[in-house]
Design a protein that fits this description.
Length: 288
């Protein structure tokens, strides 16, 4: 039997049949392996998926520096307060004028009225002190002026003449002298070089000029009346022919708009009356 079985297997093998040796008796033979053809090659394995692109690491945005604060616009300092201006009249203006006069910037006696002359004097002071030139007196100008000038005296504030007295002629510095200046239009009664009284005066016109020179009082006439011009000449102090120092009502009312006939007119009646009482015949008169 064994020999017959082996022969059968051999025949099968020759015939191209394969008997699964593992198949035992009574078992179905294993299925033949699939024919391998060129078309039936197993597909190539799919390429592995690309690795995931790593997400970029989150970056922390560097905060921008805050913009610089806006530069404040340059603001002009507030202008100093104006204390005095043209058109005003006050005792403070009078003090201003006296202080400017002490510096030689105000060529008149203080009046208390802020006019063109005062404005020009203030401008000159401001220009000299490198201050804004306005012609008005602001707080800065006033403070600096007060710090740089002496406090005015009562005579400085209320001088006896409209214009400051001129420097006296050297002939007026000794003895008793009526010192009469055409430049300052003033009469100063001086004794031993000191001014005892001063007053405004006016002189003759170009047709009847007041004579210059050195004279003496040769006649006093309290209630004199001119026969030549038919006009009163009270408190007359004659010094050169018909020329005299005397009170003039016309000068008191018209001021410098008029002129005398050669005399030295005084407009302050009270002052010339007091002068008449003090002056003696023989006292000197200097007109310059």
């Amino acid at each position: 039997m064994a020999t017959a079985a082996l022969g059968t297997l051999a025949l099968l093998a020759v015939a191209g049949c394969r008997v699964d040796a593992a198949a035992g008796p009574g078992l179905s033979p294993a299925p033949p392996p699939p024919a391998t053809t060129e078309d039936a090659r197993p597909p190539a394995p799919s390429p592995p998926p690309p690795p995931p692109t790593p997400s970029p690491a989150p970056t922390t945005a560097t905060p921008k520096p805050p913009p610089p604060p806006p530069t404040p616009s340059a603001t002009k300092p507030a202008a100093p307060a104006v204390l005095m201006r043209p058109g005003q009249t006050s005792e403070q203006v009078r003090e201003l004028q006296a202080r400017l006069a002490s510096l030689g910037l105000f060529g008149r006696s203080p009046t208390g009225f802020y006019g063109d002359v005062t404005s020009e004097a203030v401008s000159a002071y401001q220009r000299k002190g490198a201050l804004p030139v306005t012609g008005t007196t602001d707080a800065v100008t006033w403070d600096r002026l007060r710090a740089g000038t002496p406090r005015p005296t009562q005579d400085d504030l209320h001088p006896p003449t409209t214009l400051p007295l001129s420097k006296p002629d050297k002939r007026c510095l000794t003895g008793r002298v009526l010192c009469i200046s055409k430049q300052s239009r003033s009469l100063a009664w001086m004794v031993d070089g000191k001014v005892r009284a001063a007053m405004d005066v006016r002189f003759g016109s170009q047709y009847t000029p007041t004579r210059d020179g050195a004279f003496k009082v040769y006649w006093k006439s309290r209630d004199h009346h001119s026969t030549l011009y038919d006009t009163p000449m009270p408190y007359a102090l004659f010094f050169s022919g018909g020329q005299a120092v005397h009170y003039s009502k016309d000068f008191a009312t018209q001021g410098y708009a008029g002129a005398s006939h050669g005399c030295v007119n005084v407009r302050d009646k009270k002052k010339v009356a007091a002068l008449f009482d003090q002056v003696r015949e023989g006292d000197r008169v200097i007109v310059y």
